[in-house]
Amino acid sequence: MIDLRSDTLTTPSELMKQAMFEAQMGDDCYGEDESVNMLEAYCKELFQVEGALFIPSGTMSNQLAIRSQVEEGNEIITEVNYHISFYESASTVMLNRVVLNTTKTSDGLLTADIVEKLIHAKPRGYLYAQPQLVSIENTINYYQGRTFPLEIIRDLRECTQQYNLALHMDGARLFNAHMATGVPLSTYAQNVDTFTVCFAKGLGAPFGSMLMGTHEAICNAKKYRKQFGGGLHQIGMYARAAHYAMENNMVRLREDHRLTKLLAGHLNSHDAIHIAEDQVETNILFIDISNLGITSEIFAERCKQKGILVFPWLPNVVRAVVHQHITEADIALAAGVIKNVFQEALNTGPNPILKELCYA
Q1: What percent of the chain has pLDDT above 70?
Q2: How far apart are CA 162 and CA 123, in angstroms?
């Protein structure tokens, strides 16, 4: 089975397992886990930031960034399809009791002009919610893994400073952005107040994220991490896996990006599949099946029956994500299966009921 559902499905290599086995461990709640301390110090140096905090998950990292910088009842400005809204809106409300002020963009890029309009779009007297944080995402999952241009981040930085707002970046796939654009990790870090990176996606570690930023924000986050239930004890083996991944697996991301473009090219050889190859920037590919009259769940199930796993992203879109366990031979095989399922659906013709569901 070739699994293209997500890059979270990566598993540790034998060398990573060996590094985990050899990890120095102590109690991280006492600050005595040497592997955690070494990882946090390594990240502070690599990203040139004041503070770094090892967190169990990306969602918790984002929520801690919010809790550390936004008062209850106040507001976060973000794009409606960024992870912090698309997947984490319930967490944001339940854990932090803050308001999401969202907008839908055509290209996934939340610009300074849009933020300024959202700031002035409602009453801002002392009786109302005050904007305190702008949150962006890089790369942007919902928009086919596109990178967030540095110049727009810099414009946002100027805007947020003008209005005394914090700027947070969900960088779950920031390593992909770095490898795709060549922008140094420290440059991204210098233009935001807080940001996250994930070790358990393309880098292939089994666990963990890092929240980084200003000394004040990270000190606050450490307190709230404990309150959220994220204070862990002998966690060194996972820290060592993340450390190994950063030192050894980052360059591999370029190959993931190449293979994703290769998959797009293979699929475009079918007359009914249309993918804008110049918009494939990193390791995520969306395949539009709206011309088939079947749902993405049915399409994914048919691919599964032929040995390929893809993710039913939207009713008429399936997602394929390339990661370190995928080879060029896998790409060729997967493309053949997807084209075959496409052709079978075209030959059969749309089911009127299913077609109606697809376009709902």
Answers
A1: 97
A2: 19
